[in-house]
Specification:
This protein is mainly alpha-helical. It has twelve helices and no strands.
């Protein structure tokens, strides 16, 4: 997603691309939910909760895309490390989720392993020297996604991952749309003049269908079974999966640091995902 987004920013500015991503994702989810549960009805309070989640996800995607546009890949790695930590903290504070020694130790191990992997891919010492505004947006995105995860849990448990992901994403579309005219006017980008190439269409579809509709449904599906802190620890796996795909598809080298870091990270995930509520 980060690679496709960064490439897309060369043609479509970040706020506009985030709107297109949300619109395609919401449309995809809505088609599916109408087939699976066409007659479901919700109270006014529940619609308000969906709208609240929509605000969180709109904040997350907009700040994530702006932050990605302003920062380097090493700074973007902050999202991977901080989002699970925010999620665990919010889950404990808001819903009293258990954070016993086993879960805390596992989260720490996973974070440490992830840092080893990231250090092999990026120059992490360059993080403080980069664009501080971009880093601030990435921090906001981390907190926003953590909030979307934690406060979505009651609706996921009451209804389903599919419905919660669908209606929260649907509310996020107009919230992000209001920023598009402002961005286009300030950047001078004329969308009518943008060449609609097959690669650009594929990029928007990838971001909307797979990175939004598919990924967000899968993320919320995990919340049907385990606490938010347990779901969040799998966020640490992103750089390892990315490095493995790079090795498999692009013949990129796999260093000893990535292997060792991945082993430590997966040990931490194992501790978190196999611990009981108090351990």
């Amino acid at each position: 997603m980060y690679v496709v987004s960064k490439w897309g920013f060369e043609t479509i500015p970040p706020l506009t691309l985030s709107f297109l991503r949300l619109a395609v994702g919401a449309a995809t989810l809505l088609v599916v939910v109408r087939v699976v549960s066409p007659s479901r009805s919700f109270s006014r309070r529940e619609w308000g909760q969906f709208a609240g989640l929509g605000a969180m996800v709109a904040l997350t995607i907009v700040s994530q895309f702006v932050g990605t546009d302003l920062t380097t890949a090493s700074q973007g790695s902050l999202l991977t490390v901080l989002t699970p930590l925010f999620t665990l903290a919010f889950g404990v504070a808001a819903f009293g989720e258990a954070a016993g020694p086993r879960k805390i130790a596992g989260m720490g191990l996973a974070a440490l392993g992830t840092l080893f992997v990231l250090a092999g891919q990026y120059d992490l010492t360059a993080i403080p020297a980069g664009n501080r505004t971009g880093v601030a947006f990435l921090l906001l995105a981390s907190a926003g996604w953590a909030a979307y995860t934690v406060w979505g849990k009651p609706l996921v448990r009451r209804y389903s991952a599919l419905e919660t992901a669908t209606y929260s994403t649907l509310f996020a579309v107009p919230m992000s749309a209001v920023l598009v005219p402002w961005e286009l006017s300030t950047t001078g980008v004329d969308l009518a003049a943008v060449p609609v190439t097959p690669a650009l269409v594929a990029a928007v579809l990838y971001l909307g269908v797979l990175s939004t509709a598919g990924a967000w449904y899968a993320w919320y599906k995990g919340l049907e079974f385990v606490d938010a802190g347990t779901v969040a620890v799998f966020f640490f796996a992103q750089p390892v999966v990315g490095a493995a795909l790079g090795a498999l598809l692009l013949d990129e080298p796999v260093g000893l640091g990535m292997v060792a870091g991945g082993a430590v990270m997966f040990a931490g995930i194992y501790l978190v995902s196999t611990g009981d509520a108090t351990s």
